[in-house]
Amino acid sequence: MKRFLLKTTALLLLTLVVVAVTAPEASAAKRPWEKFKYPDLGEIQMPTYERVELDNGMILFLAVDTELPLVQLSATIQAGSIYEPAHLTGLASVTGDVLRTGGTEKWTGDEIDEIVENMGASVETWVGGSTGGAYLSALTEDADKALEILGQILMHPVFDEDKITLAKSQVKAGISRRNDEPMGIAMREFSKMIFGADHPLARVEEYDTIGSITRDDLVMFHDMFFHPDRMYLVVIGDFEIQDMITKIETTFAGWEKASAPLPADPATPDFPRTVNVAAKDDLTQSMVLMGHKGIRNDNEHYAAIQVANKILGGGFSSRLFNEVRSKRGLAYSTGSQAGTGWRFPGTFVAFTGTKCETSEQALDVMLQQNELLIPAWL
Q1: What are phi and psi of 70, to 5 degrees?
Q2: Distances (CA, A) of 154 to 25, 79, 123, 126, 262
Q3: Domain encompassing residue 330
Q4: pTM, whole model, 2 decimals?
Q5: Do 80 and 115 share a domain, yes or no?
Q6: What is the distance between the alpha carbons of residues 250 and 242, in angstroms, rounded to a whole number?
Q7: How many CB atoms lie within 10 A of CB 170?
Q8: Which residues pair with 123 in a beta bridge?
Q9: Cβ count within 10 A of residue 95
Q10: Of 251, 284, 310, which residue is a domain's last?
Q11: What is residue 87's DSSP assignment?
């Protein structure tokens, strides 16, 4: 099978061509959207919250909601796979898993499972690309116990060897299945074309990188990145604000601040336009992708990009769907993604799945539709 991974050098934005007409009636006919009537937008009521910075550098956002006897806590931690060594790709995600399953100095992972299950609560941890996280949900009457468990997990994990072995086996099982879906292959290779094969935003776990991870590596990663001054806690639910602040201070007492600054974020490079083929000969269909590095969500053109993507490939009435599928019957699935991100630029991608012999034809149609939307400000 052939898949074309084409990286363009332009962001997409709807370009309007204004044609001058003399008759007012003709001008009005060209603007049917002006006849649409929309109700006023409803007022958005943001909940009242309080921001507190503790002496250890931890930042709290607290919002009281007594509608249900429930407390929910979400933590964002400045730790991610962008900081892991290339030869240990997968270390961050394994750390995030075993942080929860591997137990603490006070309870084993299995004991935590039993306690949490008996309370009908949830306590989870993970580490993603650029941030880690923790989540707690418990009835008000069980919130103190759940908070104690979460504090032990974040501050005093033991990273049990058996749980590390299990987590690594699960990752390896995923590696063994990752070539089952053509779109998964295409998107993986597409990211390498956009950022570079060795870039932290494009690297993927391999058997040897997972096999190289040891308990000492997990301990090192935790010691380096898990500190109170690198964490934000959002707490919502049935509690008294000052009481919750005191409980959090008590739970995380003695947790030391980070002793070194975070490593610099990796730069996102710009590459020239290329055409790339990844061959998989046992398939009769090809995945055709084209795109480029996208934008951050704070870009001034964010809203325009979202609108343009909706027009291009954002649904059953989009241009790609109409031109590639409906009119020419070249694909069952086709569309596009806007390519925006919070911390790093996202990746814009337009895609279609088609027969191998119609790959070039589908690509030509996709290019035509993209070129209609290239902005004048680029």
Answers
A1: -140, 145
A2: 68, 12, 11, 11, 18
A3: 4-14+270-371
A4: 0.84
A5: yes
A6: 12
A7: 12
A8: 136
A9: 30
A10: 251
A11: G
Alpha-carbon span 100 to 102, nearest angstrom: 6
Residue 9's pLDDT band (boundaries 50, 70, 90)? very low
Helix (H, G, I), strand (E, B) or coil at 176: helix
CATH of residue 328: 3.30.830.10
**Same domain, residue pair 90 and 193:** yes
Query: Mean pLDDT score of the chain, rounded to an integer?
Result: 89
| Collapsed DSSP state (helix, strand, coil) of residue 288 | strand
246 plus 295 within the same structural domain: no
d(CA 17, CA 173): 52
Task: Find the range with the poorest average confidence among 10-14, 129-133, 150-154, 359-363.
Answer: 10-14
Q: Which of 251, 282, 317 is the last residue of a domain?
A: 251
64 within 8 A of 237, measured Cβ to Cβ: yes
pLDDT in tens, 133-166: 999 999 999 999 999 999 999 999 999 999 999 9
* Cα separation, 142 vs 150, whole angstroms: 12
Residues 62 and 126 placed together within one structural domain of the fold: yes
Quick count: other Cβ atoms within 10 Å of Cβ 232? 16
